[in-house]
Amino acid sequence: LAGGIILGVALWLRHDSQTTNILYLQLGDKQAPNTFYVGIYILIAVGAVMMFVGFLGCYGAIQESQCLLGTFFTCLVILFACEVAAGIWGFVNKDQIAKDVKQFYDQAFQQALMAESETNNGRAVVKTFHETLDCCGPDNAIGAVTPLWRDDLCPKKDSLLKTILETTSCHKKIDELFSGKLYLIGIAAIVVAVIMIFEMILSMVLCCGIRNSSVY
Fold it and tell me: What GO CC terms are in its UniProt record (predicted)?
């Protein structure tokens, strides 16, 4: 069940419309940074393997097989080690992911404002960011006034006052998007780790109990 839940959460994060709209973008020959998906793929793999290992543990317990329970325990140790490694990787890269996406957006934004946008898809990339995240412009003076003089790039509001008051910078929206997703991944990883620890303890207790009972 835990494996199924983790797999479901990971697949939802992988196919979430906001992240897929942004991370599938291409600016000329440059692809949007998709380091974020590394953590998702690890979660998908862990969830799928946990489901299989769970059946292995259940069958081993029903059959009272020390061999199957020992294999179950070994698989859990390997999964736990992989998850700890993925958690460390995520903690180290959590700020870098948003930073890379913001740099990609800034490059597209500069091209959309200049004549370069005629020869590439900078404007289309920027509009996708703006429409997906409901934002406009980077965190600087140019970004602050962009909605007022480039309404062809920014989401249209009902009035000028709404445009000024309700427009949020895309840097802030990118931070919110990825910090929220990474926070959810972190919670899922912690829950799985706790479940795994209990599974390892209980499988060893059961294995020892079967071995001791077979003596008599």
Answer: basolateral plasma membrane
**Closest Cα partner for 3 from 73, 77, 55, 38?**
55
Reported pTM: 0.72
Q: Which long-range contacts (CB under 8 A, 24 or more apart) does 161-167 make?
A: 167/135, 167/136, 167/137
Is the Cβ–Cβ distance between 164 and 147 less than 8 Å? yes
**Model pLDDT for residues 79-93, shown as the tens digit of each residue:** 888 777 777 777 777
Is the CB of residue 188 less than 8 Å from the CB of residue 111? no
> For residue 181, which amino acid is it?
K
Q: Could you tell me the residue range of the domain that residue 61 belongs to?
A: 1-214
The count of structural domains within the chain is: 1
- Angstrom CA distances, 69 to 90, 107, 173, 185, stand at 31, 54, 47, 29
